[in-house]
Design a protein that fits this description.
Blueprint lengths: L6 E5 L5 E3 L3 E7 L10 E12 L7 E7 L2 E9 L2 E5 L4 E4 L4 E5 L4 E7 L1 H6 L1 E11 L10 E5 L5 E4 L5 E7 L1 E2 L2 E2 L8 E8 L4 E5 L5 E8 L1 E4 L3 E4 L3 E4 L5 E6 L3 E8 L7 E3 L2 E3 L2 H12 L9
Antiparallel strand pairs: 1-22, 2-3, 3-4, 4-11, 5-10, 6-9, 6-11, 7-8, 7-10, 9-12, 13-14, 14-17, 15-16, 17-24, 18-23, 19-22, 19-24, 20-21, 20-23, 25-26
């Protein structure tokens, strides 16, 4: 018989800070809460905020990445992005952008022009997903996953659905390619719905309540903007909603390799960080206009 995955803590969002002038984020980890979520290295949560109209789009200017992937999940608002490999696009509500920075890329992201002019609610999640050493210097690539392309499992009695961004839920395979085993779902549930998730006991696992309120495993209660962090005991998670809810589920097999991190570089050894800085300074990440 499966056993419930034990809840380690219900975590409230740390104090927010601005990334550029367009993203007001709560860093749940690694700075905000000292929890281990390998292969997820960082989680910035842009809780819902209202942006006023502007003709000058807010955002983050040109910056480099190496050694990991960024995953941006849009809930409200829209973000336009460009990189030094010539890729560009817009992430709309429900969309996911999975960028494998790997050997190195320059990137910038701004509120999409029409959204900027109108203003409105804005809500996003951005994750840094670590890459194993053997993949850190592979070619950069994108997975632009539109909401309509995300595989979905419909719950009985029209209680909602589970969107499988990555992994496999009850035989429904996720839309994203991953370098290591990862389960990443958006649960979109109505009030009084129940959903059961399973995850190997050794995976690092958490839930983020994007909207609504839930009870986990019959005892732990979490509400909007809170994170539920689990221990390595048990494998089953039962979620019950007390109101219409959106819940992000993250679970992944640890890579268990040394980490050397400096700014936007996530490597295994300090000398690899020095090489990343040198490569960036000598133009090996390409060129991207501000």
């Amino acid at each position: 018989m499966p056993t419930f995955k034990k809840v380690a803590a219900i975590l409230s969002p740390p104090a927010p800070h601005m990334v550029g002038d367009g993203f007001r984020v709560h860093n749940f980890f690694p700075s905000g809460h000292k929890i281990k979520m390998d292969p997820f290295y960082l989680l910035d949560y842009n809780a819902k905020i209202e942006f006023s109209p502007t003709n000058s789009p807010r955002g983050v200017g040109v910056h480099p990445h190496r050694g990991f992937e960024t995953v941006t999940i849009a809930y409200q608002g829209a973000v336009a992005h460009h990189d030094s490999a010539g890729n560009s696009g817009v992430i709309y509500p429900g969309d996911v952008q999975w960028m494998t920075a790997a050997s190195g890329i320059l990137h910038k992201e701004y509120h999409e022009e029409n959204f900027s002019k109108k203003g409105g609610p804005f809500q996003m999640v951005q994750l840094w997903v670590n890459l194993p050493a053997k993949y850190k210097m592979t070619e950069p690539k994108y997975q632009a996953i539109e909401h309509s392309q995300i595989a979905s499992f419909e719950l009985p009695d029209q209680k909602g659905n589970i969107e499988i961004i990555a992994g496999n839920y009850k035989g429904v395979k996720g839309s994203a390619f991953t370098f290591t085993p990862i389960e990443m779902y958006n649960l979109r549930l109505i009030a009084d719905a129940k959903a059961t998730l399973t995850s190997p006991s050794h995976y690092n696992t958490a839930l983020i309540v994007i909207e609504g309120a839930i009870t986990v495993n019959g005892t732990a209660h979490a509400t909007t903007n809170q994170m539920v962090h689990f221990t390595h005991e048990g494998s089953e998670i039962e979620i019950e909603t007390t109101e219409n809810s959106v819940v992000l589920f993250l679970s992944g097999e640890p890579i268990n390799e040394p980490i050397a991190q400096y700014g936007p570089f996530l490597m295994n050894k300090p000398e690899e960080l020095q090489q990343a800085i040198e490569d960036y300074n000598t133009g090996k990440f390409g060129y991207l206009e501000e």
